Amino acid sequence: TIPLVIDTDTAQDDCIALLAGLLDPRADLRAVTMVAGNVDFDHQVRNAHLTCNVAGRLGEVPIHLGCRRPMVRPWESAENVHGDGAGGLTMDLTGCEPETEHAVDALIRLAAENPGELSIVAIGPLTNIATAVVKDPDFVGNVKTLYVMGGSNNARGNITAAAEFNFYVDPEAAKTVFAAGFEIVVVPWAPLTLDQAVFDQPKLNEIAALGTPLGDFFTKVCAATLEFDRSVGIDGTTHPDSLTAAVLLHPELINRSARYHVDVETAGELTRGYAAMSWGVHGLEPNATVIEEIDAPAFYAYIKNLLATRTTLS
Ligand code: BDR
Ligand code: CA
């Protein structure tokens, strides 16, 4: 199994990424760490607990609360895209409390407990990860691989023309992380997610037809984003976060990747959060592997199988 932590701003596809961490037999999910991003922080925490509950694992995986705003800027949400992030779903979560240890300390501790073994799947703004870098000089060396959902190669951002949401919200954190010396794998918004990890209506119908609690959960938590995506001309639901968890757990889903030097714009007037992905010609040392092509049918099959795994909620 693969020891991992998922660092998340839990809403919509973050929930599906958590399902992968919670239910994939290859995953040894050591903790979930929460970071300010998509929606109201308390909603995100509730969404993480809801997801553990539908996975039948409530109370089994520690949930740590992390940074509540970006390093130097005010928090900006994506509530217009995600609503409350879980389709208005409510469940009895009595008795279920997050850990008292801060997410940044948990990340540092878990990495130090098994140096070189822990992978991190970072699917929100990189505030917790950057803060851990700043706090503990050994953190970077203790982490095996950092999987980052963020950035867009050649722009085509989803929050501005230049930027993808996670990097836009906390560009200083993203810049800190790419300069830190981690082994990094990037799942970019464009072209990868946008062109290869969209589930169109026939696929969504198949998922709904599963009739399983997890299939119904998927349909519900993805509904708000589906509506938004359609309004901007995307033909289905987008799955950047679950794809990030999936490529860690199943590297065979990766058809092609390339080494880049990635840096993040913090000062531009129109380009805040832009991911400058520089290939060899600029003479910069590569610091990240960027995934460029996945086996899209296999990724869809993976998610569909995951959603078929539990047939009852108890
Ligand atoms: C990313 O931003 C969020 O809205 C999603 O959860 C995903 O992590 C995509 O840009
Ligand atoms: Ca996310």
UniProtKB/TrEMBL annotation:
For this protein, the parts annotated as crossing the membrane are none
- Where in the numbering of this chain does the Inosine/uridine-preferring nucleoside hydrolase domain appear? 4-300
Cleaved signal peptide residues = none
SUPFAM superfamilies membership: Nucleoside hydrolase (SSF53590)
InterPro entries listed in its UniProt record: Inosine/uridine_hydrolase_dom, IUN_hydrolase, Ribo_hydro-like
| Pfam families from the UniProt entry | IU_nuc_hydro
Single GO term (MF): hydrolase activity, hydrolyzing N-glycosyl compounds
Name the chain's protein: Purine nucleosidase
Q: Which organism is it from?
A: Saccharopolyspora antimicrobica
